[in-house]
Amino acid sequence: MRTNLYAPLLLTQAFASALGEAEGSVVMLLDQRVRNPVPDQLAYSLAKQTLHASLRNLARELAPRVRVNGVAPGLVLPTADYDDAQWERLRGMMPLERLPTPEDIASAVVWLARAPAVTGQTLFVDSGANLEAYPRDFVYLGRE
């Protein structure tokens, strides 16, 4: 909760305060699971869901000086928990049959940071994963 909820909230408030009368933009990193949560990693999921819910409140509270948006990535980089075959199967499970890249995530963040007429929005950069209701966290899917 401290890392995935409180820190972004406190940093956003401190940033808005430090801006004074200047305008600014905040882009929070969420997770595609905020739309379709899974039973795994409860504390992480609850923190990200709460952060996602607070995004609209903050956008309204800090407008018009500070715009607040979010990017919700899907599965991007493999960890040691995945083998190559599982990673390929997971790629095939995505509606777009690809996985987003770090560059895809960065492009979305930059676009939101520069979009002067956008606030309170979440961009899902997840190859369509948020369109599906997966039964478990990806680390448990696609294994043989």
Largest beta-sheet characterization = 3 strands, parallel
CATH homologous superfamily classification: NAD(P)-binding Rossmann-like Domain
Q: What is the N-to-C order of secondary-structure elements (H for helix, E for strand)?
A: HEHEHHE
* Strand numbers in spatial order across the main sheet: 1-2-3
Which term fits the overall shape?
elongated
**Class inferred from helices and paired strands:** alpha/beta
Share in helix: 40-55%
**How many DSSP helices?**
4
Commentary on this structure:
This protein is α/β, with parallel strands linked by helices and 144 residues long. The chain has one domain: Rossmann fold (3-Layer(aba) Sandwich). 43% of the residues lie in helices and 12% in strands. It contains four helices and three strands; from the N terminus they run H-E-H-E-H-H-E. It has a three-stranded parallel sheet with strand order 1-2-3, sandwiched between helices. Strand 1, helix 2 and strand 2 form a beta-alpha-beta unit. The longest helix has 21 residues. The model has no long low-confidence stretch (mean pLDDT 96).
